[in-house]
Amino acid sequence: MKKIAIVLFNEVEVLDFAGPFEVFSVTGRRAIGQPLDVFTIAEHSRIAARNNLIITPTFTFHNHPTPDVFLIPGGGGYHSDSTPFGSRREMHNPVMLHWIKSHAEKAELILSVCTGALILARTGLLDGLEATTHFLAVNTLRELAPQTRVATEKRFTDNGRIITSAGVSAGIDMAFHVVEKLQGKEVALETASYMQYDYWK
Amino acid sequence: MKKIAIVLFNEVEVLDFAGPFEVFSVTGRRAIGQPLDVFTIAEHSRIAARNNLIITPTFTFHNHPTPDVFLIPGGGGYHSDSTPFGSRREMHNPVMLHWIKSHAEKAELILSVCTGALILARTGLLDGLEATTHFLAVNTLRELAPQTRVATEKRFTDNGRIITSAGVSAGIDMAFHVVEKLQGKEVALETASYMQYDYWK
What value does the mean pLDDT of chain B take? Predict the structure, then answer.
């Protein structure tokens, strides 16, 4: 089974990771398609997602199978004293940036949701590509990645190996696009139908 | 702040709870609307959601604030040896049924997503009402609740105090409907816009 790693960090936006986690988890579990091996992974062994949803990741950065596909979600911002949290902290976290760079070389697909694109941008992976992010982070992405075309009008951008999506719920559409890319339109439609996601046609 | 309890159990479908959790968590956190106090709660202190997403609930049934609103998600089915899991186990769990019945008396709103409706049906709360569930569980709901009109054509049904939604992703739409009901159309639209959920108009 293809290995799909959903990367977590403190203050990650819940739907950013839970939407694609759901899509990939239910793909290929009925009459058609191939099941995927979906797991969560983080630097630390206890994650407090947004609004204090406490998650124990399946693996940490020190102990995990090599992913075929990995996803960087977003979320976070700045506290009133300017301390960054969530993606705004992770985009300056050398451990996160190193993990992404080293696994990006081998991965078949690299995905971001929402402000996860800011973290990818800091690794240089978005240079020369078309990317999108949460609508409130468009200017930040432009500043971080001047060699990236920021597609504000798209729900997701597909550069072949690197796929980015707009804010929060757009990650769900991006995940169906990835299922279609990996296993074809019929499997993506069947997965959307199972999830009663009437918006994916 | 209004207290919104998201009830969890083993094998709960991830998007069933994570979609509404996200919607309620981000409501009223910007220029308009009132924030909500959203938390997870379960019988046990460690929950393995579908595909082994491990969650530590904020509270257990033995120690939690009284919710103004509570949500019963779905998920689950039967193993090959006919052992029920997820909602199909919880619909026969006296602890779960007792918790629902005792908190239903005081709650302002009672919500279900997907096969969470099967659990609500077993408490008698859906008798005489219109309800919906995952499309694959429609016949089961009809058998469990012969005095309930099962609205297979609707994404959610609103009976005033008891609101049910169809499968998995329909819980997101139902949650926006609840935000609109509690705080008005403008707040629901602003929340959907923040989440880039273009499908809620």
Answer: 97
Strand ranges of the sheet holding B109-113, from the earlier edge strand across to the other edge: B59-60, B37-42, B3-8, B69-72, B109-113, B162-165, B156-158
- The shortest C-alpha distance from B127 to chain A (Å) reads 25
> Which of A1, A11, A14 to mutate: most B Cβ within 10 Å?
A14
ipTM: 0.96
* Closest-approach residue (CA) in chain B for A153: B196
Q: Is the per-residue pLDDT at A201 higher than 90? A: no
Q: A-B interface: how many C-beta pairs under 8 angstroms?
A: 93
Sorted by sequence, the CB contacts under 8 Å of residue A198 that are 6+ apart come out as: A192, B155
Q: Report the C-alpha gap between B41 and B60 in whole angstroms.
A: 5
Q: Are strands A69-72 and A109-113 parallel, antiparallel or unpaired?
A: parallel
Q: Can you list the domains of chain B with their CATH numbers?
A: 3-191 (3.40.50.880)
